[in-house]
Amino acid sequence: MPPLDTREVWLRGPLPDVPALVQPVAHALLQAREEVNALLQDFPENLLWKRPLDRSNVALASVGFHLQHLTGVLDRLLTYARGETLSPNQLTALAAEGKPTEPFPSIQELIDRFDEQVDLALAQLRITNEQTLTEVRGVGRAQLPSTVIGLLVHSAEHTMRHVGQLSVTTRLITD
């Protein structure tokens, strides 16, 4: 049997203090963090904002965008799950996603921000009352209907989707 720390997070067992119904969300977010850190170990700093396949008005998002978006969307979805609206700082961060602005954050700074956001998400999951999971929550300015569990699951699903895109992007621009 492989050592516990080499298995995917969901195969390592339940996480302490995380309610049973949100364990899969926590597992996915921890898996995403591990994959992001592994993917970007020794990633060339000069390629952070490079957009692969940048031709004829077709380009994939940069590694920098994915790192900003991973952090931002997780923050926004968890805000909605708490029943809150986005703050002016969150709206500013959303508008800046994918736009390298000075001072340029390093890859490690962007990874650290994502890691911190995962920690905040885990803290929120730990205090989530399972009785609230089916409560309706509004999303965005239009307050589109979702639920607490819908937002939490989507935060994990969306995060993993971008980790997959990040994996492809890193391979395309470093090969």
UniProtKB/TrEMBL annotation:
Stored InterPro entries: DinB-like (IPR024775), DinB/YfiT-like (IPR034660)
Coiled-coil annotated residue ranges, if any: none
Domain DinB-like: residue ranges: 29-166
Xref: SUPFAM superfamilies: DinB/YfiT-like putative metalloenzymes
Cleaved signal peptide residues: none
A Pfam family hit: DinB_2
Protein name, entry field: DinB superfamily protein
Protein species of origin: Spirosoma endophyticum
Lineage: Bacteria, Pseudomonadati, Bacteroidota, Cytophagia, Cytophagales
